[in-house]
Design goal:
The protein is mainly β and 138 residues long. 4% of the residues lie in helices and 33% in strands. The strands form 2 sheets. A 4-stranded antiparallel sheet has the order 1-2-7-6, with no helix packed on it. It is elongated and about 110 Å long. It starts with 8 loop residues before the first helix and ends in a 13-residue tail after the last strand.
């Protein structure tokens, strides 16, 4: 005996028409990772940190001995025109930061920073190591 199936032509025509848009990922924007490269030569450390979409004024670098901290903030600027509504935004707005410890203390006075095309470049000269002094006993 043949199986009889009941079909609704309107169901096939409008299937998927009245559903929500497809969600990609978890639906919430995740904080971007700050990718960092650290290189060392005889007298300095070179640090390159990727910070795309962040303005130079919103980047902060703090040096405390051998510890270097980089933080950046991307701020959302609201600009919604009359009759316009946001359907989806995948851009992240918020803070991101990284801290790492280098093998030797950094000379903060000689350090320099450049920011170009979304990449922060730091040159962190090493502090001269204090020489151990041997005391002469009288």
């Amino acid at each position: 005996m043949a199986n009889i199936m009941r079909r609704d032509p309107f169901d096939e025509l409008f299937r998927g028409f009245f559903v929500r848009p497809v969600e990609y990922g978890s639906g919430a924007a995740e904080a971007p990772e700050m990718r960092v490269d650290v290189k060392e030569d005889a007298d300095a450390y070179q640090v390159h940190a990727e910070l795309p979409g962040i303005r130079k004024e919103d980047i902060h670098v703090h040096i405390d001995g051998p510890v270097v901290s980089i933080s950046a903030e991307r701020k959302q600027e609201k600009e919604i025109k009359d009759g316009e509504r946001v359907l989806r935004t995948e851009r992240y707005f918020g803070k991101v930061s990284r801290s790492f410890q280098l093998g030797q203390e950094v000379d903060e006075g000689q350090s320099s920073a450049k920011f170009n095309d979304g990449v922060l470049e730091l040159r962190l000269p090493k502090k001269a190591a204090a020489q151990a002094k041997r005391l002469t006993i009288d």
